[in-house]
Amino acid sequence: MDQPLFRFQPEALDALAMKSRAEYGQATPYSHAVFDDFLPQGVIDAICAELPPIAPQPQADMSATTAAERGKTATVDPDFFGPHTTNLLFQLNSSVMLNFLQKLTGIDYLIADTRLDGGGYHLTRRGGRLAVHTDFSHHRTFKLRRRLNIILYLNKNWQEDYGGHLELWDQKLTAPQRRILPIANRCVIFNTDRNSPHGQPDPLNCPPERGRQSLALYYYDNPLEQVETVGTNYMKRPSEQNPLKRFARKLLHV
Prior knowledge:
Blueprint: H1 10-26, E1 32-35, H2 41-49, E2 72-75, H3 83-92, H4 95-105, E3 111-112, E4 120-125, E5 130-134, E6 145-153, E7 166-169, E8 176-180, E9 187-191, E10 198-200, E11 211-221, E12 233-234, H5 243-252
Antiparallel strand pairs: 1-9, 2-4, 3-11, 4-11, 5-10, 5-12, 6-9, 6-11, 7-8, 7-10
Helix pairs in contact: 1-4
């Protein structure tokens, strides 16, 4: 472990939050930010070096996922993560990161999830996809309200024609308003609620020995009022909808 363990510097994160918070709040189709070179290059190199080779089939410690998440697997097993990745996950759940996120987004009283429920390491293999969806609204154990997503991509030398773009869609699912290539050391932060459709809906076109790899973390709050709990809602793009239903929607302007 030649690379020393990384720590976020509060002053640098404060400056980044101040610089980016107006743009974050005004972003379309909903509040989000994309930060390239989020970590020092040596840190991202060390984390990528800890990733195991991509097997043709899911490993025993990787959870299988639904048809809407075809070819995608995930794990939060502590034994899967090397020391640099473990340290980074700790840093991303630290008070320093929470303070940064609150200043960036304007969302107060954020709570980290050290259990990484639904998060952790995500891998999508060639041909895999993640349908456009809105996220589950509450932590499944603690019932806290989900507010923010962080995705840190780990794909070095990733080519545009490999695909795997994260797509941010408008509420009516008219079209993706932003497509984000999952290159290494690119960090995406976005508000998540019933009005934030997103996904990776087109099949991945990378070489068979490659895959779309990321770390995902979610942040919560504990609202005073009771908020309805809803699950992940998978949605159909216009090209995936029944033509008669599409025609009816156009006639009704919905």
